[in-house]
Amino acid sequence: MCGIAAILSPDPGRPVPQHALRRATAALRHRGPDGERIWVSPSGRAGLGHNLLAITDPEGHQPIASEDGRLHIVVNGQFYDYKRIRSALKAKGHRFRTRSDSEIALHLYEDLGPACLPQLRGQFAMVVWDEESGVLFAARDWFGLKPLFYAQKEGRLYLASEAKALFAAGIAASWDPRGVYHALHACPDERISLFAGVSQVPPGHVLHADGSGVRLERYWDLPVPVRRSRLVPFRRPQSPGPTVHDAIARVRELTEESVALRMVAAVPVGCLLSGGLDSSAVLGVAAACVDDPVAAFTVGFERRDYDESRGAREAAAAAGARHTVVTAADSDLADHFADAVWHAETIQYNTHGAARYLLSRGVRDAGYKSVLAGEGADEAFFGYEFLRAASGAGRGSGAGAAHASAAGGLPRAVARLPRILSALLRSPTRHYPGLAAASPWLARLALLLPAAPSLFTRLAGGLGRLHAVCSRDFRDGFAGYDLYRAYYRRCRRTADLSRREPSRRLLYLWLHSLFVNYHLAADRLDMAHGVEVRLPFLDHHLFEYTNSLPVSLLAHHPREKHLLREAMRPYIPDPVYDRVKRPFMGPSAVGTDGPLHDFLQDTLRGEAVRAVPFLDHAAVERLLDQLPTLPAEDRPSLDSLLLMLASVAVLQERYRLSLAPLRGKLRRGYGAFDIHSFRAQPRDPALRD
Fold it and tell me: pTM value?
């Protein structure tokens, strides 16, 4: 886990500016405090920078060169099962310069080129320079656990682990209007960022760059599972799927393997612990992998209705762990919210980002560089209620659930089809006015998904207020642009959504929007303190297995994540086994006096908001004036909105951003304008609207 930077200058007459590379690398020093190096190729065409966070090799400085000096690599991340691969490469005659796990990627690429990626297992972003061919190759892991941004200036290509490093290298910092619009509507695009001209290598993609330009190609996507139907006329019967007992045994085996691989390091490895099922299971398995007690770290809040430290203590005691609770008072969250936003480079929807920032600082202060965490289990095992509802396994009955009918297993929505069609003929504005203003398509979808009306009601209310505080010019620039429909259509074309079950379609959309661009942005909060977080449930071998299981095994049980509960039963205490899922949320800043309330008032009435080119600061102040009279049920969506606006203000102040103009034409419902400034267009149609 480190920080990487790279510059490609295809013009031999204009070599890589070393000062720019050095500034970019220095801007990532927090990601790798154990060493910092840059290297420029003899031809001057490429430069690589690296900040070392020593986990497997204290002397594992990069860039690393191949035996003949033709290839050089920098890696941010961790490769698991690397000792086995290293031995195999040595047997083939490769000579290793370091003990770092990163070096296996260099020699695999030397032998196989881009086809080496299926041989790797881990979380990574890497850049390889081939001096002989003049090709720069970059890759990002399957789920996008490690970030990789890129931009172009004056014919040169710049890459880095964080956008701030690109700015340090000389890339102009300004808002990208479409990136902002998507993020404000909780639908961030995995390809772009908040910043104009700064794109992301999407998860499961590689980037190739040479003198002719840049292209992106997909090397992995979540497989389309085989559908198992009860009876299909004129078709050969399908083999029966795994039994629940088979699935439990296999999940246990793969989870044990995934955790054990992530416990391998030259430094002690701890665990982040919330007290819920996911993190408690990881801790329990981790404790079984080592002889000494595992260190566990929990964030605790001074407000008891948000604090989960008591449940975490139970799980830590059961695992025999050394438990540390890092207390995050409201004043701490207020004091460090801006730092968390600056490091994450994202718009925050809750104070949990600041809490994660403080938790990672506590991990570092305790002397730890590496910890395991439970993120990804809700995605792998259908822990979210919206996935369970879409699968026909919602809780309760009536409008709050979408149960399968006893005859044929079809959703009850079929029985309601006449009423639904009638509703679709009417304007959805009657039901979800705020939602309809942003996306008529999503407002109609809300009528088709009665399983989660509260979700759409909250979204509708929040979007209505959001539009009220945006400037008229900004809103007019997106008139007729239905971002949710545009996003769905792109995913439908590139991911073959029609062959996926409805719940798996939702999972796919989630993985490629908020999950990668918001939840996994916690990497930058952790790495702000030089702490790497390893995520066993996002091991692609484990995830592909759960993705192959029938949805009924994952979701059709009264208790969420039943399959995981049973698989991890030997590793978790009874209170955790029986505990109902509770999302990790930081304290609300709305509805209470105190430091968080004062922080919002000071920030949103300050000069930074006035400088944001897409906000109406007078409308923001009117909203703040209305706070005392707003009903309590509006507070959750309002809390998210105000924290989003505070995030925008922080980024405006820290980066001094202007608003770049929209390039090209927005086509109604598609949003089809080019976001890439490179001479060559992406070859993968997934990268086009």
Answer: 0.89
β-sheet with 149-153: strand ranges across: 36-40, 46-51, 3-8, 156-160, 149-153, 199-200
- Token couple for 123: 């979380």
State the DSSP H helix or E strand holding residue 87, giving kind and residue range, or none if neither: helix 82-91
Residues 585, 329: Cα–Cα separation, whole Å: 14
d(CA 177, CA 685): 23
Evaluated on CA atoms 537, 543, 548, 550, the torsion sign reads positive
* 286 CB neighbour count, 10 Å cutoff: 25
CA distances from 670 to 184, 188, 199, 529, 615 (A): 18, 15, 19, 40, 24
**pLDDT for 502:** 85
User: In angstroms, what CA-CA distances link 162 with 76, 139, 200, 240, 329?
Assistant: 11, 15, 10, 47, 28
Distance CA 553, CA 429 (A): 38
Q: Is the dihedral of CA 554, 556, 559, 563 positive or negative?
A: negative
The answer to whether residues 587 and 636 touch, using CB atoms and an 8 Å cutoff, is no
Q: Which of 96-100, 228-232, 465-469 has the lowest mean pLDDT?
A: 228-232
Each residue of 297-335: b (16+ CB within 10 Å) or e?
bbbbbeeeebbbbebbbbbbebbebebbbbebbbebbbe
Dihedral sign, Cα of residue 346, residue 351, residue 357, residue 360: negative
Give the percent of the chain with pLDDT over 90.
Answer: 69
Around 141, how many Cα atoms within 13 Å sit in the side-chain half-sphere? Answer: 26
151: burial class by Cβ within 10 Å (0-12, 13-18, 19+)?
Answer: buried
Is the backbone of residue 552 left (phi > 0), alpha (psi -120 to 50) or beta?
A: alpha
Residue holding tokens 């304008």? Answer: 673
User: What tokens were used for 95?
Assistant: 């000579």
Going by their DSSP bridges, the two strands 36-40 and 46-51 should be labelled as: antiparallel
| Extended strands (E) in 411-528 | none
Residue whose entry in the numeric block shows the structure tokens 């000389």? 170
Closest to 259 (Cα-Cα) out of 537, 573, 668? 537
State the average pLDDT over residues 373-387: 94
Per-residue confidence band for 460, with pLDDT thresholds at 50, 70 and 90: low
C-alpha separations of 11 from 151, 157, 212, 359 in Å: 17, 11, 11, 46
- Give every strand in the sheet of 322-328, ordered side by side: 322-328, 295-301, 269-272, 370-372, 532-534
